[in-house]
Amino acid sequence: MREDDNDKLRGSNWSYPSRFEKEYLPLSDLRNVWFQHDGTPPHEVSSVQQYIRDTFQQQVIGYGGCVEWPPRSPDLKPLDFFLWGYIKQRVYATPPPTLQELRNRITDACASVSPEMLYNVQREVQSRVQMCIIAEGHHFEHDR
C-alpha cells in the first residue's frame, strides 16, 4: 500500500482488483487459498464482488461468499484478536529509526508467524465462535 495513493487506500472499485492482483496475488496456485473479508464497503461493490467470485470461485468467506461471516466482528477475526497485536508488538518493541527499517520489521514479523501459531489461532476461532453463540451474537471478548 502506498501512502500517496488515496484511491488505493480507500479501495475504490476501479483499483481494487488491479491492486489486489499486483500486490497480493502473485500466486501461481490458488487451489488452496480462501479469501475472507468482513463486508467493508469496498468489498460490497458489484465489480469487486464479481472479481472475488471469478478469482476464488467457491472459496470465499464473508459478504457474497459461499460461507457467510458476520460483518465487523472483531471478536472473531484473527487479524483483530491475534495478528495486528502480534505484528505491532514485534515491530514497535523499539521505535524503528527509518522507513526502510519499519518495512523490514513488518516483513520479518509476518515471516515469523509459524504453522503452529496458525493452528493455535484456528483453534481459538473455534472457541470464539462457541462464545459468540453463547453470547447470542453480542461482543464477548471483554467477558473472557
Question: In words, what does this structure look like?
Answer:
The chain has 144 residues and is mainly α. The chain has two domains: 14-69, no CATH class; 71-143, no CATH class. The chain is built from seven helices and two strands; from the N terminus they run ααβααβααα. The chain has a two-stranded parallel ribbon with strand order 1-2. α5 (78-91) crosses α6 (99-111). The radius of gyration is 17 Å and the shape is globular. The termini are far apart. Mean pLDDT is 78; it is low at 1-13. It comes from Araneus ventricosus (Orbweaver spider). One of its GO terms (molecular function) is nucleic acid binding. This is Transposable element Tc3 transposase.
Unreliable spans are 1-13
Judging from the principal axes of the Cα atoms, what is the shape?
globular
Give the integer mean of the pLDDT values: 78
In whole angstroms, the N-to-C terminal distance is 35 Å
**Biggest β-sheet: count, sense, barrel?**
2 strands, parallel
Number of helices: 7
Strand content: under 5%
Q: How much helical structure, as a percent, in the residues? A: 40-55%
GO molecular function, one term: nucleic acid binding
Protein name: Transposable element Tc3 transposase
Organism: Araneus ventricosus (Orbweaver spider)
InterPro entries: RNaseH_sf
